[in-house]
Structure formats: C-alpha cells, structure tokens
Specification:
Layout: H1 15-35, H2 38-58, H3 70-76
Length: about 80
Amino acid sequence: MSPNDGGVNPADLDERQLLHEMETVHRTRHETLLHGSPSALEAHTTRMTALEAEYLRRHPHRDVLSGRTREGARERS
C-alpha cells in the first residue's frame, strides 16, 4: 500500500503506529458511514479491515472479555 491507495501497509507499522491508526479509523467510522461518499466508505472499510487483520495477526491470543462473547452476553440477560 502507498499513501495514494490507502496508506502505509499495516505490516510496516510499529505497534504504536498500528494502534494509533486503528484508533483514528474507529473514531472516524461513524462520520464516514453517515456522510461519506460510496468510494470514501469503501476506502475506509478497506483500511479498517487491513489494520484490524494486522492487529489480529500480531495478537492471535489477545485477551477476550467474557462479556464480549455470546455466552457472556446471555449471562447478562
């Protein structure tokens, strides 16, 4: 990826940069969904997916909160 086609390749970002990029894309998601052009929404989705995939690749055993699972959600009901 280059700046002209969606930004720096997520694999080339260090951990701090990756987290910053993910925070930014998540913060801007709602506004893009509500008011972005179809191409802006597509680009945003592509970038968000690439960043999240890289995070998951690096952290396959990340902590999963029980309340963020189906079973945990059912227990709250």
